Amino acid sequence: MAACALRRGLLSTVSKYNKKHTQRVLSVLDSGGGGGGFEAFRPRLQCLACGLSGSVQQARLMSSRNRPEGKVLETVGVFEAVKQHGKYETGQLFLHSVFGYRGIVLFPWHARLYDRDITPPMSDSKPEPPGAHGSKEVKGKTHTYYQVLIDTRDCPHISQRSQTEAVTFLANHDDSRALYAIPGLDYVSHEDILPYNSTEQVPIQHELFERFLMFNPAKSPPFTARDTLKAWQEKNHPWLELSDVHRETTENIRVTVIPFYMGMREAQNSHVYWWRYCIRLENMGNEVVQLRERHWRIFSLSGTLETVRGRGVVGREPVLSKEQPAFQYSSHVSLQAPSGHMWGTFRIERTDGSHFDVRIPPFSLESNKDDKAPPAGYTL
């Protein structure tokens, strides 16, 4: 019944989504507590597929939470129309269409998306790094991402599919390898936003919510940025900025890479430059597969070429299925040069035991940010 109600609710509310994407949203939302714990509920609307009845009210977003006596549905908010054009504003509540968590938009980033699945004209293209696979150049187009807060109540439901402490900074002290993370901070693509509204004045549970945002019922959305958010954004802009996104699909497995420059530290009388990179693997097909190995090539401007091989990623070998199609993680790399390149492959295993290699799109490691001020994290 929940699946039926969800299907009717989302298909009418998000009618402009393409069919494949909508089905993928349903697979995440319909998984109960294991996939984010959300369902959309529309009572009393006749469903042609199963004959259940319900009404033609607005689709409501529900959250489920486990209690000793069982699962309880509670109203969270009401879905809004997806924006096909323009951007979402600071304070927009949303449900992540792939990972299913609740979140709120802090501010947008305008990135250049280099999609190797699209054959570009010769102009406005990005050349291949030395030794990378393939020879084509890739045209970049502007794409909107958002800095968001994740509701901490949903973190346990997504921890197996996406890291909730993936945004990291270099520490301010002398240890050149010390990192610290801001829990529940994420970057979300425009098409992954399912907007909704709520009557609650504090609809998202996160330690930074009330420090960054204030309730203002005269605005739409009714949450506006405090001065502390604006100051934090300005102070940490070099370390937060999302500028380039790289994407490539091999045999229905799409790999998206977003690199971030983290800063430079001195170690043993030399300069060490640090980057964070976020990777999402997404199964665009119906076949169940599992990531088994990684193979990286890391080229430094100093002239070195390093090869890294290993089992899985971040200690895991994730399964990608139609029900759980995506896995997202972050890692780090350091070079003793101000720039370099990375590329490689993931070894993927099918259910029959056969393997194939999925290409990781080549991406640049650039240190073109101002290193004068150390990252300040969320110290306000």
Write a structural description.
One of its GO terms (molecular function) is DNA binding. By secondary structure, this protein is mostly beta strands. The chain has one domain (78-366): ApaG domain (Immunoglobulin-like). The protein has 6 helices and 22 strands.
Shape call: globular
For the sheet with most strands, the description reads: 13 strands, mixed
Number of domains: 1
> Unreliable runs, pLDDT <50, ≥5 residues?
1-57, 376-380
Distance between the termini: 47 Å
CATH topology: Immunoglobulin-like
Helix-strand pattern: HHEEEEEEEHEEEEHEEHHEEEEEEEEE
Number of strands: 22
- Beta-strand percent range: 35-45%
Residue-averaged pLDDT, rounded? 79
Q: What's the helical proportion of residues?
A: 10-25%
* Structural class label: mainly beta
What would CATH call the class?
Answer: Mainly Beta
Figure out the total of helices: 6
Q: Which second-level CATH architecture applies?
A: Sandwich
Assigned CATH superfamily: ApaG domain
- Rg over CA atoms, rounded to whole Å, is 22 Å
